[in-house]
Specification:
homodimer, alpha/beta, Quinone Oxidoreductase, Chain A, domain 1, 6-stranded parallel sheet, about 25% strand, globular
Chain lengths: ~325, ~325
């Protein structure tokens, strides 16, 4: 089968012909139709150290068709179109076929095109887990406030929609006219400029005691002190970006505040007992996307899936300026 | 009225005669019968900087009788015996009379003596808020595991009981024969030695992936790396002890783990809208103490309440070796 991979020979992506894998146990064999590129792809590329004849296939956000199933599969059958983010410890979706555990997969939203659907799984799972599993937002939190730092990125665009949908007052951050417009379109009621300190801007909006929740989708170290100040007593901060440098935690003590990380590959990497939650999230999200409660965050499509296009996509993601989501569609 | 205070003249406690305060608004005037000494008392003593003629009265854990009420009080009436921890930003309970907001007060457990009841409020609120408000433990968490670091201290003794009561598997830490016996008496199913690394001890007990919850009631910086290792994927750590030094947060990212602080004075200090929760906690805890579901953690009583006894009590607390709770009872 065709694949785009990394080898020992070069740091460039290479068009390869490799053996098609065989599904066992809970795995589906999926024929890939469109993939989406995320910051995790560029991070994994940087972290990849290849020895010997190994080939590394990246890509964890895809739409495709189930063409074969493992012996223990119960949730899907061949012929179904599915969408999924997958498991970063396994070969990814820059390939004609990939293996994916059924518990990490949802049926593709019917009313969305392939590229619209491919844009969604990784960021939807991330935003969903951050809001509902890490920050623990529940129905009774309606009316509370959330600050979403970097509202116009991939995760921000869906987190803004989900937070607005459950009745939170959403304050997103953006710094360019086009990102401000984008995040307002998805439900942000206030937009702050993340190039300036956020706490004074929140006070100006009337959030004197701070906000109930903060979701950080940008350099966490850079925003750390500002977030500690901006969170209200008993409030909660969640970040998807690692605190690479040590941090002072002192300001959070007085407020009995909480900090959590969201990493969407935790469930698959550690094979947690609640791994099937990602199947449930994707299923529920598909209903919401089909019903129009959620909108796709797709903003750019490249084609076809080959080394040159993947390289171009990585350059765009690395710039940090992508608004919404970038999808690469179809093999030649 | 009699009081034991700190003045500009000396760092020693001094027996004083000061004016009796008058209750307004939501305040109760309480005649103090017994008080309990906590680490917060010794920390507040150290942090106290007195200028001019000011007098600082410490003490935030008490039992007494309501003798007068403010005009907006609805929860209590005069003649009732009450127990409370109070508000660290106001004068404390080392005095014949103190003012306390009714929303931070509960009726004294009927079946407990004055000193048995005085031992409970501050540590019960702390343990309760840590387990149920910060770690967010709910009924469905029955059967999950919690590591309580320093199980035999004031908060540890009640946290162990509460955690065991809701059906968690409790692993407490202790290092001396008498503390091991104490923590087992209160419901710890396993006892680890916190003078050695905890993660290998947990693995030996069969907690290969770590524990679901960790409650740190000891030097948080010293246990930081060990706790990051010992918490399971998607697990939660709560501490009541400030991380005074900066910390690396990297290990928590991969696990989507959570860290929270519990500081029992957050609600009163910031006058949060849910401040009355402390009244509710003390009310519920009184029922549990009266019914025998919870046991008092009282372990030592001194008498009477004066400068010399308070000094002795502070020395005992500062040693860090107190098992359970220390109470000082009655004025001369």
């Amino acid at each position: 089968m065709k694949a785009v991979g990394l080898t020992k020979a070069s740091t460039d992506f290479i068009d390869l012909e490799i053996a098609q894998p065989k599904p066992e146990s809970h795995d589906l064999l999926v024929k890939i139709k469109a993939i989406s590129i995320n910051p995790v792809d560029t991070k994994q590329r940087e972290a990849t150290k290849i020895t010997g004849d190994e080939v590394r296939i990246l890509g964890w956000d895809a739409v495709g068709e189930v063409v074969e199933i493992g012996s223990e599969v119960t949730l899907f059958k061949t012929g179904q179109e599915v969408y999924f983010a997958g498991d970063v410890t396994r070969p990814g979706a820059y390939a004609e076929f990939t293996l994916i555990d059924e518990r990490l997969v949802g049926l593709k939203p019917r009313n969305l095109s392939l590229e619209e659907a491919a844009a969604m799984p990784l960021t939807t799972i991330t935003a969903w887990e951050a809001l509902f599993d890490r920050l623990g937002i529940v129905e009774e939190d309606e009316g509370k406030s959330i600050l979403i730092i970097n509202g116009a990125g991939g995760v921000g665009s869906i987190a803004t929609q989900l937070a607005a949908h459950v009745g939170l007052e959403v304050i997103a951050t953006a710094s360019r006219p086009e990102t401000i417009e984008w995040t307002e379109k998805f439900g942000a009621q206030h937009v702050l400029n993340h190039r300036e300190k956020l706490t004074p801007q929140l006070k100006q909006l009337g959030f004197e005691q701070g906000v109930d929740f903060i979701l950080c989708l940008h350099n966490t170290n850079a925003h750390w002190d500002d977030m500690q100040e901006a969170v209200r007593p008993q409030g909660e901060i969640c970040s998807i970006v690692e605190l690479a440098e040590p941090v002072k935690m002192s300001l959070l003590k007085d407020k009995s505040a909480t900090f959590s990380y969201e990493f969407m590959f935790t469930r698959s990497k550690y094979d947690t007992v609640d791994k099937v939650k990602q199947h449930e999230i994707l299923t529920e999200a598909a209903h919401m996307l089909d019903g129009g409660t959620l909108q796709t965050t797709l903003n750019k499509v490249l084609s076809p899936i080959n080394a040159a296009t993947i390289e171009e996509a990585h350059q765009i993601i690395s710039s940090g300026k992508m608004i919404g989501k970038l999808v690469v569609k179809g093999f030649e």
